[in-house]
Amino acid sequence: MLKYIDNKDIFKECGIKKTKQRNILLNILKEEEEPLTAEEIFIKARERDKYINLSTIYRTLNIFISKDIAIKLNLEKENKSMFQLNMMDHQHHIRCISCNKKIRIDKCPIIGYEYFIEENTNFHIIGHKLELYGYCSKCKDKKQ
Amino acid sequence: MLKYIDNKDIFKECGIKKTKQRNILLNILKEEEEPLTAEEIFIKARERDKYINLSTIYRTLNIFISKDIAIKLNLEKENKSMFQLNMMDHQHHIRCISCNKKIRIDKCPIIGYEYFIEENTNFHIIGHKLELYGYCSKCKDKKQ
DNA sequence: TTTTTGTTGCAAATCATTTGCAATTATAAT
DNA sequence: ATTATAATTGCAAATGATTTGCAACAAAAA
Questions:
Q1: To which H or E segment does residue B34 belong?
Q2: Fewer CB atoms near the end CB (10 Å): N or C, chain B?
Q3: pLDDT tens readout for residues B91-114
Q4: Contacting A residues, span 96-125, partner chain B, CB-CB under 8 Å
C-alpha cells in the first residue's frame, strides 16, 4: 500500500528527484480519499507552498501516473480529469473462454465510476466484481 | 436495438427535428462498430456534406447523448472523448448488501474500457460481468 | 565545492469543446 | 401551398484544461 511508504523511498524507487513540490503533491494524494481535479490539487498545494505553479501540478501528476504512483480518471460527466493515489488494492483479470488463460488487467476502470454512481444513486459503495472474457490472441487465430 | 430503427422515428421519438446533418451523423454512428472521436466523425461527415461544421458535430453529439441515442466514452489515455451509438444491450446493477435492494445502472462503464483492453492484451473480448455492491441510502443511514 | 542533470515558474501556445449571433431550414398553423 | 414559428446551422471567436519552451534554480553526483 503506497500510502504507508515513505515519500523519499517512493521517489528513489521511481528514479526521480525528491523536491518540495513533489513531496507536497504526494502528501495531498496520500491524505485524500476522493479523486481530485488538477485545480483542486493546485488549491490545496498553494496552502503549503504559496508559489507553486499549476504547470508543476500537471507535470508532476503526469510523472506520478507514468510511475504508477497515481491514476487518472476520466469521469463521464466531467470535462476534466481527476487524479488519485494508485491504491493497487484489487485486481481484475481477463479470461479466455477457449483455453482458460487468465491475464491481469493493471488499471481498474471502475474506481472513478464508483464515485460517479455514489453521487447518482446515493449508495455507499463498498466494492465491485468485474470479469472480462473473450478469446486470447492464440485462440482467436485458431478459430479462423 | 437502435441500429435497426429508422432515423426518422428516432428523431420523432426524441422530439428533435430531422435534419440532413443529424441524419448523416446518426448514420455514421450506426455504421460504425468502434467508438469515434468528434474529429473522426467530422471527417467522415465531410465526405457526405462538404460544408458541415465541427460545431454542428459537437452540438449534435451532445443532443444524441442527452437523448440516449449515443454514449460518450472517456478513455484513460486519450485527452479527447469518443462517441458511439448507444447499444443498450446489457445492464448492470448495484446491490445493497444489507437489504438486498437492487437498482439499475444505466450507463455501462466498461464499453470503452473493453476497447482499450483489446488493444493492450490482443484479446478479442466477448463480454463482461460487473456487479457493484454497497449500502443503499436507507441502510447507510441506519448504520449511524 | 563544483559540475551535471533534472525540475520549476512563468508566459505563451495548443487542443478539444462551447457559445453568440445572424442566416437558414424544418415543422406547425393558416 | 404559403406563411409564421421555433429550432438548427455555419462561422468566428471564446473558453477552459492541459502542455511546452526557456531561463533560473535546486538536487544529486563527482
A1: none
A2: C
A3: 788 878 777 778 878 778 887 788
A4: 96-97, 103, 105, 107, 109-110, 113-114, 117-118, 121-125
